[in-house]
Design a protein that fits this description.
By secondary structure, the chain is of the alpha/beta class. The radius of gyration is 21 Å and the shape is globular. It has 11 helices and 10 strands. The chain folds into 2 domains: 124 residues, Rossmann fold (3-Layer(aba) Sandwich); 167 residues, Rossmann fold (3-Layer(aba) Sandwich). The strands form 3 sheets. Strands 7-6-5-8-9-10 form a 6-stranded parallel beta sheet, sandwiched between helices. Strands 1-2 form a two-stranded parallel sheet. Strands 3-4 form a two-stranded parallel ribbon.
């Protein structure tokens, strides 16, 4: 199974998955993301095994290329007719599916992502200076590093450093933008990092600037660390980032708004501290691993029965 649509490879994957399900005879087939969701649902037809599908953000969300979105919307509408329970990681995802005719309301369940907690020693100190800003994201079409850099360029009169974690096909393009904007001394590329909690503990502001999302785990990691979050107002982001309380949500591709909110945080250590504390509190109340696990287990038992 590969990520992009390829009829030959997809047919082979379909055959392999169906054989695996037949041999293993599971109580439940749990499918995650669009490609596995499509192949797994088709492969399960006639095998008398209940299936649960979690898309982790719809591939026809606003911000996805129009032709690609149209194709995936059509496929999801057809596959939803199998009657499979659909787990949405945000209320926004569930609403988007229903608005686009994907499945019946009774099929859709919302279970927000959750994260295991971290030791107190990995909590950040957002009030410290100099201000380190971090974004964890692959360099690909979904993530909007161009808007991120353009917004930060408008704050070049203030002290800050930007740390970018991730790899991907657009990394060279992002580096070229950094050079063009004269930000080379301030922007640092860290590639893949295995110890994200330790890295976040040394930051003061977390950013996630993107074109579309489901319900990003990286934001939960930042809230868990006690960091204020500035993120694009897409998908289910506003269900985690409470505008004006735990951070700020920014309209998609709006560099001016991004710069405005960043300046507020860069200028006020007290505001960073307060928003970080609020985010940590919300994480503890709603987005722990235990909360996610409890709701997921309840669903799995109901489906298995």
């Amino acid at each position: 199974m590969i990520r992009n649509i390829n009829p030959y490879m997809d047919f082979r994957a379909l055959h392999e998955v169906r054989s695996l399900i037949s041999d293993f005879a599971p109580n439940i087939v749990s499918l995650h993301t669009a490609k596995a969701g499509a192949i797994g649902r088709i492969a399960s037809v006639g095998l008398d095994v209940p299936v649960i599908y979690t898309p982790h953000g719809w591939t026809f969300a606003e911000g996805v290329a129009i032709r690609e979105a149209q194709l995936y919307r059509f496929l999801e509408k057809v596959l939803a007719r199998f009657g499979t329970p659909i787990v949405n990681v945000s209320n926004a995802d569930r609403n988007l599916a229903l608005e686009n005719g994907v499945g019946k309301r009774s099929q859709h369940v919302v279970i927000h992502n959750g994260m295991p907690d971290i030791p107190v020693g990995h909590r950040a100190k957002p009030g410290d200076a100099p201000v380190n800003i971090v974004m964890i994201a692959r360099f690909e079409e979904q993530k909007d590093h161009q808007t991120l850099l353009s917004g930060l360029a408008q704050c070049s009169d203030l002290p800050w450093n930007l740390n970018l974690i991730g790899t991907g096909p657009k990394e060279d393009e992002v580096k070229a933008t950094v050079n063009r904007l004269g930000l080379k001394s301030r922007v640092h590329f860290w590639g893949y990092q295995s110890d994200i909690p330790a890295f976040l503990s040394r930051q003061q502001i977390f950013l996630l600037i993107s074109k579309w999302e489901g319900f990003p785990r990286s934001i939960l990691e930042a809230m868990r660390a006690g960091l204020p979050v500035v993120a694009s107002d897409v998908g289910g982001v506003r269900e985690a980032v409470v505008h004006g309380s735990t951070g700020f949500t920014v309209p998609r591709e709006d560099t001016r708004a991004l710069a405005t909110y960043l300046r507020k945080l860069l200028k006020s250590s007290a505001l960073r501290e307060k928003m970080g504390q609020n985010g940590r509190k919300l994480f503890e109340e709603a987005y722990t691993f235990d909360e996610m696990y409890s709701r997921t287990r309840k669903l799995f038992l109901a489906v298995a029965e």
